[in-house]
C-alpha cells in the first residue's frame, strides 16, 4: 500500500513539474486546462457555477442512458471516414438550475470535424436533472467524453 501511495505522489510530482502536460500522446487529455469563468461566458457578479455538488447533475435515465444517447445520436463525419480516423472529444458544459445546457466548450480534441459533431450532440440533449446542494438546485459543470471510432466503438 505504501508503495502505491509513493507511486501516486511521484506521478503527480512529474505532472506538476512538466506544467500539467502528459507525455503520452495516446492519453485522452494531453494538457491540464485551467478553465476560468470567463471562458464560459461568465461575468463578474453572475451566479457561481459549481464543480462539485452534493448531488451531481444527471442525464434522464442515468449515465448508461447518457452513453446510449451519445452512441445513438453521434454522426461520424465523412471526412473522418475517408481518413479512417478515430478520436475522443472531451466536452465541458454547464447544467443550469432548470436542467438546460449552456456554455458548452471543447476541453480536448484534435479534429475540427469531431469537435463540430460533439457540439451538435450537446444541442440535442434533453433537460438534465440539475446538481443540488441541500435540496437546492445549482448551476453545475459537467464533463463528458464523446468517442469517434472508425468501424464502431467497442463498449
Overview of this structure, please?
Residues 61-155 form the TonB C-terminal domain. InterPro entries: TonB-dependent_transducer, TonB/TolA_C, TonB_C. It comes from Runella salmonicolor. The model is unreliable at 1-36 (pLDDT under 50). The chain has four helices and five strands. With 155 residues, the protein is α+β, with helices and mostly antiparallel strands. The chain has two domains: 1-32; 33-148, TonB (TolA/TonB C-terminal domain), CATH 3.30.2420. The protein starts with a helix and ends in a 7-residue tail after the last strand. The radius of gyration is 18 Å and the shape is elongated. The protein has a three-stranded antiparallel beta sheet, covered by helices on one side.
Write the layout of secondary structure elements.
Elements: H1 2-17, H2 63-73, H3 78-83, E1 87-95, E2 101-108, H4 112-124, E3 131-133, E4 136-138, E5 140-148
Antiparallel strand pairs: 1-2, 1-5, 3-4
What is the CATH C-level name of the largest domain? Alpha Beta
Based on DSSP secondary structure assignment, what is the total number of beta strands?
5
Estimated structural class: alpha+beta
Inertia-based shape: elongated
Measured distance between first and last alpha carbons: 31 Å
Please provide the ordered H/E string of secondary-structure elements.
Answer: HHHEEHEEE
Instruction: Assign the CATH superfamily of the largest domain.
Output: TonB
Number of helices: 4
Please describe the biggest sheet, giving its number of strands, its sense, and whether it closes into a barrel. Answer: 3 strands, antiparallel
Please give the CATH architecture of the largest domain.
2-Layer Sandwich
Mean pLDDT: 78
Radius of gyration: 18 Å
| CATH fold descriptor of the largest domain | TolA/TonB C-terminal domain
Helix share of residues?
25-40%
Please, how many domains? 2
- Strand order of the biggest β-sheet: 2-1-5
pLDDT < 50 stretches? 1-36
Estimated share of beta-strand residues: 15-25%
Family: Belongs to the TonB family.
Main location: membrane
Protein name: Energy transducer TonB
Subcellular location: Cell inner membrane
Amino acid at each position: 500500500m505504501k508503495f502505491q501511495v509513493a507511486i501516486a505522489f511521484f506521478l503527480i510530482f512529474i505532472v506538476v513539474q512538466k506544467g500539467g502536460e502528459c507525455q503520452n500522446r495516446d492519453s485522452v487529455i494531453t494538457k491540464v486546462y485551467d478553465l476560468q469563468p470567463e471562458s464560459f461566458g461568465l461575468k463578474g457578479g453572475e451566479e457561481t457555477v459549481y464543480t462539485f455538488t452534493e448531488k451531481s447533475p444527471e442525464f434522464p435515465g442515468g449515465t448508461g442512458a447518457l452513453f446510449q444517447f451519445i452512441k445513438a445520436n453521434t454522426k461520424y463525419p465523412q471526412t473522418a471516414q475517408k481518413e479512417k480516423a478515430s478520436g475522443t472529444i472531451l466536452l465541458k458544459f454547464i447544467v443550469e438550475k432548470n436542467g438546460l445546457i449552456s456554455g458548452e466548450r471543447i476541453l480536448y480534441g484534435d479534429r475540427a470535424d469531431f469537435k463540430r459533431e460533439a457540439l451538435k450532440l450537446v444541442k440535442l440533449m434533453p433537460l438534465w436533472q440539475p446538481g443540488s446542494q441541500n435540496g437546492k438546485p445549482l448551476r453545475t459543470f459537467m464533463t463528458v467524453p464523446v468517442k469517434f471510432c472508425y468501424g464502431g466503438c467497442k463498449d
